[in-house]
Amino acid sequence: MSKVSLYIYTKNTDLHAMSAFETIKSVLNYPYLNGLKRYRHITLTFTGWTDDEARQKVDEFNRHSFQLLNPNKEAALLQLQDALVGEISSSDLDAEGRLLKRLIETAFDGHLTEVSVSIAWEFSVDAHGLSEDLLKDELRHRIIDTTSYTQGLLINPIYEHFKWQISTRTAVG
Amino acid sequence: MPRLAVIQFPGSNCEYETARAARYAGFDVDIVRWTISRDDFHRYDAYILPGGFSYQDRIRSGAIAAKLPVIQYLQEADTLNKPIMGICNGCQILAEAGMIPNLSGEHKVEVALARNIKGQDPHGFVCDWTYVRFVRPEKSMFSSFIDSDMVFPIPVNHGEGRFVVPDTVDLSQCTVALYTDASGTASEKYPITPNGSAQGIAGICNQKGNVFALMPHPERASLLKQIPLWIDSYWAYEKRRSLRLSEDFEGPCMPFFKAMKSAVLAGVSHV
Question: Are B203 and B212 in contact (CB under 8 A)?
Answer without folding.
Answer: yes
